[in-house]
Amino acid sequence: MAKFLKIADANPPGMFRVKRDDPSQGFLSPPLQRMATTIPSSCRVPHFVGNKEIKFKEKAVPEPGPGQLVLRVHANALCGSERPQFLDGAPVTPGHEAAGTVVAAGPGTNTAVGTTGAIFLMDFCGECRSCRLGFTNQCLQKRGDMGFNRDGGYGQYELINENIFFPVPDEFSATESTLLLDVMGTGGHAIERCRLMRPDIESLLVVGAGPIGLAVLAMAKIVIGQQLKVLITDIVSYRLKLAERLGGLPIDVRENSLGAGIQSHGLVQVDMAVDTSGKQLARQEAVDAIAQRGSLICVGHGEGITLKISPDIIAPERSVVGSEYFRYNELPTNSQRLRKHRAYLSQIITHRMGVDQIQQAFEAFFFGCETGKVIIEQ
Ligand SMILES: [Zn+2]
Ligand SMILES: [Zn+2]
């Protein structure tokens, strides 16, 4: 380890939190534990080789350069956007919903070793026109995407530029801290995009009750209010039950047409819709279900949409809007919301598994359909 590093050995071992081995403790009151403070020169990390197979390989543990931090990752959430990496393999270690503890800090950084927090996916430049206005999810000179073209959070150690670290008080476990990313971040940003298009939202349709659909539902209730009617569709009973527990009005589109499902909840149309399914047919139906002045907010990637401009868009003044990840500066508000709605939001996490079970975790997440968010803990 180079001399300029503030290494973990220099800090009190009590500063570090590790995964609890006893899942019966839940994750509402994480105990602090001591961990070995020596950073190894290499460690075993998951290797996505393609064809739905995850092996392990030994990889060097990086050292931080100027402006950089190394985190000991304790939790990383699985995400639907990792499907191509699971199917086709990945040149880097995936994982973009990571939280952990800073164990080494390079020169020129301000984050103390021992600080706990979450990692923002996009390594934004902080200087371009978008970044200067706070639109860090639309950076014009992005340096990388963690877990996609930089090593991410399924490895034990993750090297990041300090600007994408968001400190989270250590009263929250690493698993809870991951809620700030694609659940509260991406879900909350979609709701922000809704409110930008229309201030008077009384009903919202969420298409798809996968993890992002559940996230949009939860953030809609938190941000807009409990009185908001949130209708949510899926074809998997497990997911619809989870959505119902979060306060959503479920529509099983295996049994009902979307229109009949909306009517069963006492409405004719909805004010706004958010698509998390990525399916063309579902998007088309959603547009037809939106009232005048409403918008379809697209969060799920995937297929396309065909619009008839006059009747679909111009006459009713409807719009189709994209929503991509979220801005770094949405994190502080969401951090306060996490404190207030911690138990509610934690229901979205249905599985917590050790890294040795990452293969089973991915299979359950992508092919079992009976999960909400799945977290790899280590
Ligand atoms: Zn994600
Ligand atoms: Zn930028």
What string gives the helices and strands in order?
EEEEHEEEHEEEHHEHEHEHEHEHEHHEHE
- Number of DSSP strands? 18
* Low-pLDDT ranges: 1-36
CATH-level-4 superfamily name of the largest domain: Medium-chain alcohol dehydrogenases, catalytic domain
Small molecules held by this entry: zinc ion
Main beta sheet strand tally, sense and closure: 8 strands, mixed
Bin the strand percentage: 15-25%
Name the shape in a single word: globular
Distance between the termini: 23 Å
Helix content: 25-40%
CATH class of the largest domain: Alpha Beta
Number of domains: 2
Structural class assignment: alpha/beta
| CATH topology heading of the largest domain | Quinone Oxidoreductase, Chain A, domain 1
CATH architecture of the largest domain: Alpha-Beta Complex
Number of helices: 12
Radius of gyration: 21 Å
Mean pLDDT: 91
Quick gist of this model?
The protein has 378 residues and is α/β, with parallel strands linked by helices. Helices cover 27% and strands 24% of the residues. The protein is built from twelve helices and 18 strands.
Fold blueprint:
Blueprint: E1 6-7, E2 42-50, E3 53-60, E4 68-77, H1 83-88, E5 98-105, E6 116-119, E7 122-123, H2 129-132, E8 144-145, E9 157-161, E10 165-167, H3 174-177, H4 182-197, E11 203-207, H5 211-223, E12 229-234, H6 237-245, E13 249-252, H7 258-264, E14 272-275, H8 280-289, E15 295-298, H9 309-314, E16 319-322, H10 331-340, H11 342-346, E17 349-354, H12 358-368, E18 373-377
Parallel strand pairs: 11-12, 11-14, 12-13, 14-15, 15-16, 17-18
Antiparallel strand pairs: 1-5, 2-3, 4-5, 4-9, 4-18, 5-6, 6-10, 7-8
The structure holds zinc ion (2 copies).
